[in-house]
Amino acid sequence: MKTSPGKRETNASVSMQQYGIRRIDLSSAQLASSEMARDINRDIVLEFIRFRQPVSRVDLSRLSGLQPSTISAIVEDLIDEGWIKEGAIVRGGRGRPSTMLSVNEDLVTLALDIRPNQAIVAVVDLSGRFLSHETIPTATAPDAAVAKLVRKMNVLRSQHKEKTFEGIGVSVPGRVDPITHRLLMAPNLKWDGFDIKSALEKEMDLQVEIDNDANACLLSELWFGRLEGVRNAVLIAVSEGLGTAILAGGQLHSGFNGLAGEFGHIPIDPRGPLCGCGQRGCWEMFASSRAALKTYRKISGNLQVKDVQSLLKLAQDKDPAALKAIKAQATALGRGLRLVTAALSPERILITGEITSCWDTVSPIVQAELQAGMLAGSAPQLTTAGDGYLARLSGSAALLMQRHSRYHRSTHVSRTTKRERRSKA
Ligand SMILES: [Zn+2]
Description:
Helix content: 40-55%
CATH class of the largest domain: Alpha Beta
Oligomer: single chain
Distance between the termini: 35 Å
Order of helices and strands: HHHHHEEEEEHEEEHEHEEEHHHHEHEHH
Strand content: 15-25%
Bound molecules: zinc ion
């Protein structure tokens, strides 16, 4: 999830070259306090525990490059705050016996994946395990939908009374304003302008973190360590439209107004079909599932095939028209990736969505177009990413845990009180 601190400390010149030059903006510069450094180290140690558990303090010191005394202090904090627990005592061949550390399984989050027709609510622990999940229909009006969601979440909470709920992570099929947290653009949900975060926080008395579904999928990849060592990646969610999530310099990037990465709405053919955004020939008019379905109907004259799943099934069964439509979609997808590589130069491009069920057909075409579109050098690595509601839910949980641990910890009342209590003692 984060870079190895040892690497960062010892290879400063390499990292400068690799990750760009850091410019200090004096109008918004914030001096690094010792507390900030401690918080960063603390998050790194927590990540090592999550990925290597059960792990001893000695191992953590070796893995992180931090002094044993620093590790001891951080571990004490993490235990005190309830993130981790001490477990078995292991006696090695030499030296003192070590107490093994693991993440606290009693610490959980509510994860919420809101779709146009349904929402899934789940209880997820710090290791990404699902303790339970339930589906409910999404009512049209946002207020009614939130009321329903709250009822369901309260039921789940009461079923897991022994657990500590950290908050709620929410993924939505649209863009979220990074400042107001209101939905900016959710064409299929029609909740534009609605503030889900405040509504849920008020009703549930838990901290809420919200982001779009493509970001949740990318975060899920990070959360499970599948992007270890990757600092620049782009995830393209191919569905009715094209959604994008950007990892730039190791951080999720949403830009000034939360709309960074709307590559799907960059016109690639001024004479192309009219897009829902008002422009002609947007990339998604050629590379989305909807585009493939349209192509298939045009080629075959068959209007009975109503959804992309049926189309992909036909392609898997080697139906010539379906294969042609999917190949046209793959070509458009690969060509449009030039926008992505020219803009962001990622080292990896991840594709999610139904189209990955025909990956054997799709991948060589996208790969060839991707390489042909490079301005220089070799193309980024092309892979598929975990998709579907499980990826979005675990990403939602990760969204909460990550932002919570790093940025919002001091605002968490019970923790602050605990910490204050301890420092006063
Ligand atoms: Zn458009």
